Amino acid sequence: MANKRILIISANGDESTTGYATRVLEIAKTLKNSGNTVKLLRFFPFHHPRSWNKNAQELGIELSELPMPPMSRFSLFRWATVILANLLTYIVAKIWRADALQAESHDAALIALWIKWYAIPVLVDIHGAAPEEAEFLDRHSKKAKNRSWLQLAEKLIVEKSDIHFVVTQEMINHLQSKHTKIKSQAKILPVAVNLEFFPLLDTIQAKNNLGIPPDKTVVAYCGGDQNYQCLDDMKTVLEKLCGITNLHILVISKSTEKFSTMFSSLPCSKTYVSANHDEVHKLLNAADYGLLIRRNELLNHVSCPTKFAEYLACGLAVLTTPWAGHGPSIVQHYKAGLVLDPDAIDCKALEQLLQQRPDRSSLRKIATDNLSWSKASQTLIKCYL
């Protein structure tokens, strides 16, 4: 058993139920349960005071939260934040006698690595291709981050950290093609699911709880309404499904009103639910298929979408596209759904897939064998032995 004092750095304003927060807290829990002493130092934008204290207490994780100016918008605040947070991180690491420091995402990495005061290992968990995501946002919305800022963070990660975690081999390939002076060791730590939180339930009962007739073919979408979710393509796929099967659409999202308006013209029954993360599994178990639609963008190629693992864990076959991270290769290898092109949907292949209900136990086994956190986390644990 390991017995190290690990200081985890987070710099993010997310609620404690988001994918980012879930991953950070799961990492902290895993390292603690492996025999380490773990402290989470979280810097959050002062205009988003969303505390993780309740979740940290439930996991037995020591948490310190400090407000900071928003790093992504104002250059002056950005530098002031990094300099101050970098110094505070050093002081906390020194006083707390940390044996190692782990930064979660690009912003946290910049805080940890801007001046590497400490003679202890620094590990960084990269949560995706952040500079490319910023470029995508710049093209599609007004919420873009400063790309040059993220490029600098990425450069520091591959040159100054001891180990950097990525979610796919494609992300390793991307970084190698982009940076010439990589000194940090890359490890794959995929986005995986804690199967305890996504049990397999009785489908008929789950449908009945939502008032959905048992003979309906239920296609679920679980997620937000961001541009990269490809809502127009999703609607195109659903339109095809309406003409093939007795369809019921189940949308699990905080943006139910937007989806209700968008899908109102589809000639089928629908259910829209806004749910907390701990309720999602009950809703997904009412579905037969899950939607994971992405377009041909680099940020999608190197990704590892959480919902893919959650769908399979709940026994859903997955309807996806060729660009949804590692999902399509798993779907094709295990025949766990269908990989389709939204611009040229193969209705015959879609009809063949829908002729029989998915084998839910087999689909869950795919998640158990390939996408469970208990297996994926072994990579993380070994780095601290």
Note the topology.
Layout: E1 5-11, H1 19-33, E2 37-45, H2 53-59, E3 62-68, H3 75-95, E4 100-104, H4 106-113, E5 122-125, H5 130-140, H6 147-160, E6 163-166, H7 169-178, E7 185-188, H8 203-209, E8 217-222, H9 231-242, E9 247-252, H10 256-262, E10 269-273, H11 280-284, E11 289-292, H12 298-301, H13 306-313, E12 317-320, H14 327-334, E13 337-339, H15 347-354, H16 360-370, H17 373-382
Parallel strand pairs: 1-2, 1-4, 2-3, 4-5, 5-6, 6-7, 8-9, 8-11, 9-10, 11-12, 12-13
Helix pairs in contact: 3-4, 4-6, 5-6, 13-16
Structural class: alpha/beta
What is the percent of helical residues? 40-55%
Query: Judging from the principal axes of the Cα atoms, what is the shape?
Result: globular
Number of strands: 13
Quaternary:
single chain
**Main sheet characteristics:** 7 strands, parallel
Order of helices and strands: EHEHEHEHEHHEHEHEHEHEHEHHEHEHHH
Per DSSP, the total helix count is 17
Q: What percentage of the residues does DSSP assign to strands (E)?
A: 15-25%
Poorly predicted residue ranges: none
Radius of gyration: 21 Å
From the N-terminal CA to the C-terminal CA, the straight-line distance is 7 Å
State the strand order across the main sheet.
3-2-1-4-5-6-7
Average pLDDT works out at 91
